[in-house]
Design brief:
Elements lengths: L1 H16 L1 H10 L7 H13 L3 E4 L6 H11 E2 L2 E5 L7 H4 E6 L4 E6 L6 E5 L6 H13 L1 E4 L2 E4 L5 E6 L12 H4 L4 E4 L5 H12 L11 E2 H11 L6 H15 L13 E3 L3 H17 L7 H12 L4 E2 L1 H5 L4 H11 L4
Parallel strand pairs: 1-9, 1-10, 2-11, 3-6, 6-9
Antiparallel strand pairs: 4-5, 7-8, 12-13
Helix pairs in contact: 3-11, 10-11, 11-12, 12-14
């Protein structure tokens, strides 16, 4: 009885506090046609302090979606175009000598923003990637002898191109794991693409958008997301899914033993639970249901399952494995 009263109160709170999500989606829809999955995943990252890695072919509006979302929120936005000649100081900043005062002054880099777009993150060498990933993890940057805390909300939204791997520096698995979500972007439908063509052939600038949400609303929503009720059975469901990636035979998937090199870490379990809560928030619901977990499972786990050479030889992807695990694990 106590639970039902609590859940009802949480439900009402969520319904009120999640109202801005619809406003934000309507504003981004003025620029972005379709791609609801991508926008939804960017919002999940925003609500959970989780960084997002978008992977898709050129021209699928990855960069545009991130810029549009940042514009719709009253916050500071910066874009870093990753190139092979980029240096760590180009991202975090450096010390500049001031002859007039015979002293060094700090020039902060583009990472000092609320939204950082790391465009084509796999185009820069490892030391540059590491500089950004350290800022993502620690939420602070060290320049000279001093450490500087990054402002909240702080979110890194990175893009990478799955083709043209020549001359790129693929992110190591351990560093990819620092991204909460890895989202694969697909082509728009015919009708969506028809609308894209029409909009882009207009003479006037059709996309006039502005900030409709304040950063404080996002910070408040993040605290509310953690209050969403999650039953013990849902927690067990999340554990069963993640453990099935480590010990597939115990989940009745013995055939996968030879295909999986390693499964999800405890970070996968934490992120799956948090993303499921955020997804419930987007649905304006104060409790998590199994469908919330299933909805975010691919984006949370696809970059956390290591495949063997045998899996690659048989053309089995991590997405295929996750689908089979979701089919095998009992839904509460």
């Amino acid at each position: 009885m106590q639970h039902s009263i609590d859940i009802e109160a949480i439900n009402q709170q969520i319904y009120i506090e999640s109202a801005f999500v619809e406003t934000l989606q309507q504003e981004t829809a003025k620029v972005i046609v379709g791609q609801n999955h991508m926008i939804e995943r960017l919002l999940l990252g925003l609500l959970t302090k989780g960084h997002v890695l978008l992977e898709g072919l050129p021209g699928l509006a990855k960069t545009l979606a991130i810029k549009t979302l940042a514009t719709a929120i009253e916050a500071k936005f910066s874009r870093i175009q990753f190139t092979p000649d980029l240096l760590p100081s180009d991202i975090i900043g450096t010390l500049i000598y001031n002859p007039a005062e015979s002293d060094f002054t700090v020039r902060k880099g583009p990472v000092f923003a609320n939204f950082v777009l790391a465009d084509e993150i796999n185009r820069a060498p490892a030391k540059v990637q590491s500089a950004l990933l350290e800022a993502m993890q620690e939420k602070q940057v060290t320049i000279g002898d001093h450490s500087y805390t990054l402002d909240e909300p702080f979110l890194v939204l990175a893009t990478q191109n799955p083709i043209e791997q020549e001359g790129t520096y693929p992110l190591p698995e351990a560093q990819v794991d620092r991204f909460m979500l890895k989202v694969k972007i697909d082509y728009p439908t015919k009708e969506e693409e028809r609308e894209i063509i029409r909009r882009n052939l207009q003479e006037e600038d059709f996309a006039q958008i502005g900030p409709v949400v304040k950063a404080d609303q996002i910070l408040k929503a993040r605290k509310t997301v953690r209050k969403i009720y999650m039953d013990d059975k849902i927690e067990q469901y999340i554990l069963d899914i993640v453990f099935a990636t480590r010990y597939p035979a115990k989940a009745g998937l013995a055939d996968f033993e030879a295909l999986i090199e390693y499964g999800g870490s405890p970070r996968a379990s934490i992120n799956l639970a948090l993303a499921a809560k955020a997804y419930a928030f987007l649905q304006r619901r104060g409790f998590v249901i199994p469908e919330d977990v299933r909805a975010v499972c691919q984006d949370i786990l696809r970059h956390r399952i290591g495949l063997t050479y045998e899996a690659e030889a048989e053309n089995v992807s991590s997405e295929d494995i996750i689908k089979q695990i979701l089919n095998a694990v009992e839904v509460p």
